[in-house]
Amino acid sequence: ERVLEQSPQHYEGLQCMGLTLHRMHFPERALPYFVRARAIDGTDAELLNNLAIALQDLGRLDEALASYDAAIAQKPDFTLAIWHRSRAYLLRHEFARGWPDYELRLVSEDQPRRPTAFARWDGGALAGRKLLVYAEQGLGDEIMFASCLPDAMAASGHCVVECSPKLETLFQRSFPAATVYAARPDKAVPESVVGAGIDVQCPIGSLPLNFRRARAQFPVHHGYLRADP
C-alpha cells in the first residue's frame, strides 16, 4: 500500500497487492489491481493467469477463459495456466475440453510417486483386464470421483480400488464386486493384490476422462455409497 501510494502505476506493486488479496480470499478486491497491471503490460503471462484465476473465482468464466488463452498465447508451455483453464471448462460443463488438461495435475511436484508401477490405462478396452484405481487428492475428491467406480467395474474384468483408510469399509460396502483395500503410507500395493495380477492402473481423478465426457454420461442414480446400518 505504501509503494502504491508513492507510485500508483508501480507494476510489481499492483501485481503483489492483487496476489496478496487473492490469497486472503478476496478475489473481488484483488481484481482491480490485476486489471490496472494489465493496462501497463498486457503480455505478462503470469499476470494474465492470476487475473484469470480471480475472474474464475468470481464466476466470470468467459472472461477467465479469455485471459487464460491470452496467457497461454504468450507462453505456450504454461502448464499452470493450462491446468487452471481446464477447471474453468469443467465449471462450464465443457467436459470433453476440460478433462484432458486436468491430467496435468499429475505432473505436479507435489504429486507423490508410486513405488509399485503398472501400465497406465490409456482408455482402451478393459474387458477381461484387471484395473487398479488408486486414490489421490483429498477425501472429498476421492468420494466424488468414486461415482465413476461402477462404470470402471462394469467395463473391466475386475476392479481393484486403493482408497484412504478412512473410506475402506464404506467403499467395501458400496462396491462389493471390487477388491478394496486401504492405501499404505508408502503407497505400495500389497503383495496379495500384486500376486493376483494387475494389467493397468488409473488414478481415480482420471476416471471421468473416459466415463464423463458429456452431461449425458452422468447417470441418474439414488446414491452410490452405502452407510453402515
Provide structural commentary:
The protein has 229 residues and is an alpha/beta fold. It is 48% helix and 8% strand. It has twelve helices and four strands; from the N terminus they run αααααααβααβαβαβα. It has helices at 2-6, 11-23, 27-40, 45-57, 61-74, 79-91, 95-102, 139-145, 149-155, 168-174, 191-195, 207-211, and strands spanning 130-134, 158-163, 179-182, 200-203. The protein has a four-stranded parallel beta sheet, with helices on one face. α10 links the parallel β2 and β3 (179-182). α3 packs antiparallel against α4 (45-57), α4 packs antiparallel against α5 and α5 (61-74) packs antiparallel against α6 (79-91). The longest helix is centred in the first third of the chain and has 14 residues, at 27-40. The radius of gyration is 21 Å and the shape is elongated. The N and C termini lie far apart (57 Å). The model has no long low-confidence stretch (mean pLDDT 94).
Which strand order spans the largest sheet, edge to edge or round the barrel?
3-2-1-4
Q: Helix share of residues? A: 40-55%
Low-pLDDT segments: none
Profile the largest sheet: 4 strands, parallel
Structural Rg: 21 Å
Q: Based on helices, strands and strand pairing, what is the structural class?
A: alpha/beta
Name some characteristics of this structure.
229 residues, alpha/beta, four-stranded parallel beta sheet, 4 strands, 8% strand
Topology diagram in text:
Blueprint: H1 2-6, H2 11-23, H3 27-40, H4 45-57, H5 61-74, H6 79-91, H7 95-102, E1 130-134, H8 139-145, H9 149-155, E2 158-163, H10 168-174, E3 179-182, H11 191-195, E4 200-203, H12 207-211
Parallel strand pairs: 1-2, 1-4, 2-3
Helix pairs in contact: 2-3, 3-4, 4-5, 4-6, 5-6, 6-7
